[in-house]
Amino acid sequence: MRTQVGIVGAGPAGLLLSHLLHLHGIDSVVLESRSRDYVEHRVRAGVLEQGSVDLLTRAGLGERLHREGLRHEGIELRFAGESHRVPMTELTGRAITVYGQQEVVKDLIGARLAAGGAILFEADVVRLDGLDSDSPVVHFRRNGRDEELRCDFVAGCDGFHGVSRGAVPDGVLTTYERTYPFAWLGILAAAAPAVEELIYANHERGFALYSMRSPEISRLYLQVAPDEDIAAWPDERIWAELRARLETVPGWSLNEGPILEKSVTPMRSFVVEPMQWQRLFLAGDAVHIVPPTGAKGMNLALADVALLGDAFAAWYDKGRTDLLDAYSATALRRVWRAQHFSWWMTSMLHRLERDDPYEANLQTATLRYVATSRAYATSLAENYVGLPEV
């Protein structure tokens, strides 16, 4: 097989890159180890920054997003028995949209297949060769057969556990990493959200987040230990803990319903530099991971491939190499801004040590400052809805 850009991974990054390349008249093939059904129903992130919504809309992918996505113009902070709203749109002129990652993936797959795009599901990439030549080769196995995809460039959009990052020779990449001493227990519940905007709660028992995926489905999270056993959390214990951490405002209560899914997600920060080597360009979780507190993961991945799409177009249309050469440095400016914001939100809202009253009082002071200072609230809002340029 031969194409111009070989893309490893059919998550939001890989699929959007393929679509953007198509709009520029550039051929690509997407290789994905999982089935189409799996990637279309894999529940991950659910918050799109204003810039991500604008990007998808410009690319002709906004019809269902604007019809079904939930536009939010603020978030609520709960702490010390108080409730404060951060009016993001009032402060920045921008908003966020709640729209599940799996819905973005469905829209992208539909658009690519409608345009005759090549997405090979259940194609397990085993190695990359010739990345330092003008004809890299992606070796993959599909339907019990070994196959090859030859291309001009390879885009590694295959996540933290994919093969792409490992194809870079030893000594080239530098890794920056932080592991947090807690995790998130997340649930999907068949319960209408009791709020119109997300609630971030700092509580003596630990952090909690009230989110949603649709007018009928709630998405909720609890701070737990990093080695928490999901079996120790029957439904009734989850609801009791959510009530304890969220029902701190008189007269308000959450809506309960059948729990459809539950999982425990460790919290960490991870960045690899550079994000490119020879003819290999890395994007998304393959090179950076943020704790989900700041809702930046999917947005960073989309921003990465927006840069790559323009860079490849400049190379194919005009023979320019400057955008490809600058890809890593340009992308990393946004990545590190998001890393800082995600770390700040995480540190402000999670109980780092349950029995440390000094730390708890610092968090309350910080939250109260956000709630009462327009400048501080604007800083939070700008980062949360997404800075247009970094």
UniProtKB/TrEMBL annotation:
It comes from the Bacteria. The keyword Flavoprotein applies. Transmembrane segments: none annotated. Residues 2-341 form the FAD-binding domain. The keyword Flavoprotein applies. SUPFAM superfamilies: FAD-linked reductases, C-terminal domain, FAD/NAD(P)-binding domain. Keywords: FAD, Flavoprotein, Oxidoreductase. InterPro entries: FAD-bd (IPR002938), FAD/NAD-bd_sf (IPR036188), HB_mOase (IPR012733), RIFMO-like (IPR050641). Its EC number is 1.14.13.2. One of its GO terms (molecular function) is 4-hydroxybenzoate 3-monooxygenase activity. GO terms for biological process: benzoate catabolic process. It is an enzyme of class 1 (oxidoreductase). NCBIfam families: pbenz_hydroxyl, PRK08243.1. This is 4-hydroxybenzoate 3-monooxygenase. It comes from Micromonospora profundi. The lineage of its organism: Bacteria, Bacillati, Actinomycetota, Actinomycetes, Micromonosporales.
